[in-house]
Amino acid sequence: MSRFHWVFLGTLLIPCWIIGFKYFVDLKTIYKVAELAGTNPLAVYHDFDGDAGRFFYGPIFIWLVRPMAFVPQKFGTVVWLIPQTVSYFVFWICLLKLIPGLFDSQKKGWWLLLFAFAINPIHNNFQSNNIQLILCAMLMLGHVLMGRNTKLSQGLGASLVSLAAVIKIFPAFMWLYYFVTKPKQVKLFLVMSSLIVISFPLMIVGWNGTLEMYRGLISNVTTYQKDNSLVGVVDILCLPSMIARIATAVGIPDQTYSVVAKGIIVAISTCFFGLAYLRRNEREEYLVSLWALGLALMAFLNPSTRVHYFIFYLPAFCAVVSDGTNGTAYSRRILTAGILSFVLVALTMEGVVGKSFNNTLEGLSVPTLGAAILLLGLVQLLKKLGSHVPSTTPMPSNWQ
Questions:
Q1: Distance CA 167, CA 145 (A)
Q2: What distances in angstroms separate CA 282 from CA 96, 259, 276, 286, one per listed residue?
């Protein structure tokens, strides 16, 4: 990367650090879990008193955050900012590896557009001490490592993806994508690493304790209504949320539109995984765009997506921008779709347009519509890349 890009990344990080020091938010739950990890880990999946909230992370995360119990809460934010900041740079470095054309010195103007949107979801991850940026960096680094030909790299990459999927359930969407598209050796690494991560609590709380934890996790995820878009929460920004709002407005019963929403999610996911399987041996340019589509769909279909989940849309946007700047009419149409989607999303940033207008845009599903436009632009890009004659260059052994 050039000096311009490092200045860009540093400038983007400054307001994130400032807002990160100001709020405590999710760290309340993390501190509560860290304390229980040393005294009564089986109580973690019970409802907490006060504003600590419910715990929706896999059992292994309980012991990953255990060290936080030994850090005074006044310094907790500083400690949490370290993995956030590392993840921030891992995210951009992996993006450079996967979409090198984006960092072309001739495309500085597009980085200003990227800045306009990227500050919103990244800023929100730091503000709420959320984990989406960390999970995204894990998935991206895992993707890069699994693309190498060494067993060590592939094993490490598979372990990162499996860990992300066990820490929080929705990254399992990408775990399944890799299982569908990768060769047998990587599939084996994915399965083995998942079994190790899932069974980790056995060493500490035994078989019965582990089963109780996973029962509690499933109960917390499936019975929680406050952040479930299938019942029409206003600030959740995803396809199920938009369906719920439309259905509520026209008087469709909850059970009916819930079934419809779930059916649409299954149908879209099935089409995506079918495409991924059929195109798993495509050339690298196509596979990167397909991977970016998977990340974006993961957020678009997830029933609990808020603006900090929009970090998963950034690779999709970068793929569209990187292709669209070559000047062809077809690419300009794709690029226009991507720009429009992210202009809509950027406008929801509270600090840009104010709280009331931000709430109005969210209530009208404007960010969700913007994400849908981006997805359509990326699908167009896949059609364009898929229409080319396949490369005669042999695929790397890990893609065969």
A1: 20
A2: 21, 35, 10, 6
Chain centre to alpha carbon of residue 309: 6
Tens of pLDDT, residues 99-148: 877 766 566 666 767 777 777 788 888 887 889 999 999 999 999 999 99
Tokens of 287: 């596979």
Measured CA to CA in angstroms, residue 399 lies from 142, 154, 162, 251 at distances of: 15, 12, 19, 49
- Asked if 375 contacts 320 with a C-beta cutoff of 8 angstroms, the reply is no
Q: 126, 23 in Cβ contact below 8 A? A: no
Query: To which H or E segment does residue 273 belong?
Result: helix 254-278
Distance separating alpha carbons of residues 375 and 290, to the nearest angstrom: 11
Q: Where are the domains of the chain?
A: 225-400
Q: Could you read off the pLDDT of 216-248 as tens digits, one per residue?
A: 888 888 776 666 666 666 778 899 888 888 888
CA nearest to 347, candidates 364, 328, 329: 364
The token duo for 198 is 């899932």
Distances (CA, A) of 68 to 64, 135, 239, 255, 375: 9, 19, 35, 41, 38
For 294-350, the DSSP string reads HHHHHHHH-TT--GGGGGGGHHHHHHHHHHHTT--HHHHHHHHHHHHHHHHHHTT-H
pLDDT interval class at 395 (50, 70, 90): very low
